[in-house]
Amino acid sequence: MNHKTSRILVTGSADGLGRAAAQSLLSAGYEVVVHARNPDRAAGLRPLLDRGADIVVGDFTDRGAVRRIAQKLNDAKPPDAVIHNAGVWSGPAVMPVNIIAPYLLTALLREPRRLVYLSSGSHFGGHPHPSLAGTDWRGERAGSYADSKLFVTALAAAVARLRPGVLSNAVDPGWVPTKMGGPNAPDDLELGHRTQEWLATSDDSQALTTGGYWYHRQRRPPHEAVHDQAFQDRLLEALARETGVAI
Predict the structure, then answer these.
(1) 179 catalytic, yes or no?
(2) Of 127, 147, 224, 241, most Cβ neighbours within 10 A?
(3) Catalytic residue among 149, 179, 213, 215, which?
(4) How far apart are CA 9 and CA 62, in angstroms?
(5) Which residues pair with 128 in a beta bridge?
(6) According to the model, what pLDDT value does residue 2 have?
(7) Distance, CA of 113 to CA of 134 (rounded, Å)
(8) CB contact set of 62 (below 8 Å; sequence gap of 6+)
(9) Which of 72, 145, 179, 213 is labelled catalytic?
(10) What are the CB-based long-range contacts (under 8 Å, 24+) for 239-245?
(11) β-strand partners of 9
């Protein structure tokens, strides 16, 4: 199976870890597609566009915008790898941005060969609800960040199981000093984006594995629900029902 990567989509790349990853990948000679949620944020990405990056613009709280981004990428040159970096910490956008958007992109993009999902140590505090029927996927009220990160970590593992030709992994970047993490966060900002880039591009034997949960290039055991196939199946069924798109 050829897992060579040349074109990489980095969602949520206007600032923080996403921007750092996009800059680093451009410097390494990869084709990069950056993403911003609106034109104002996109304007701040001009330095990366001047270096050759392509851009897609769309608010991940809007499912229609996510679908349009997927269509635009499929119609042009689909990415070989996706770093699902976009995320929000609190408020009603948590579920739409942290799990619905990456799920839709995973289902709709013509299969990239590598998928990297941003998890968090907070996912250990998430609840693998026996029934996901009551989950507020639409963001009509504030969502649980911990739950959203448990769901996206389980999504990464489910994709690894269901798409054996695709390398699908989740990464805990650590608590790093980004706008989301705050200035006093204790982890290393540089290390915070290196694992995502490595999993998206490297031919290192470890980076060519799938279904992992990673922290600073070390594979770690995730929440026990992540590799529970029954939970994965319930999650995928709920997301397919909610979005009308199945993986």
Answers:
(1) no
(2) 147
(3) 149
(4) 19
(5) none
(6) 58
(7) 33
(8) none
(9) 145
(10) 239/99, 239/100, 239/103, 239/137, 239/155, 242/100, 242/137, 243/63, 243/100, 243/103, 243/104, 243/107, 245/104, 245/107, 245/108
(11) 33, 82
Q: How far apart are CA 165 and CA 149, in angstroms?
A: 24
- 90 is written with which tokens? 């609190």
For 76-102, b/e burial (b = at least 16 CB within 10 A) is: eebbbbbbbbbbbeeebbbbbbbbbbb
**For the chain, which residues score pLDDT lower than 70?**
1-3, 175-192
State the maximum Cα–Cα separation within the chain, in Å, rounded to a whole number.
49
Q: Token pair of 31, please? A: 């084709």
Are the C-beta atoms of residues 55 and 36 closer than 8 Å to each other? yes
Distances (CA, A) of 106 to 96, 101, 247: 14, 9, 7
Can you give the pLDDT at residue 88? 94
Q: What is the pLDDT of residue 186?
A: 43
Q: Is the distance from CB of 165 to CB of 210 less than 8 angstroms?
A: no
Does the annotation mark 72 as catalytic? no
pTM of the model: 0.93
Give which of 210, 63, 217, 236 is closest to 152, Cα–Cα.
236
Chain-centre distance of CA 223, in angstroms?
18
Residues 35 and 54: their CA atoms lie apart, in Å, by 9
Specify which residues 34 forms β-bridges with: 10, 55
CB atoms within 10 A of CB 138: 14
**Where do we find the tokens 């119609």?**
75
Residue 176 phi/psi, 5-degree rounding, is -110, 155
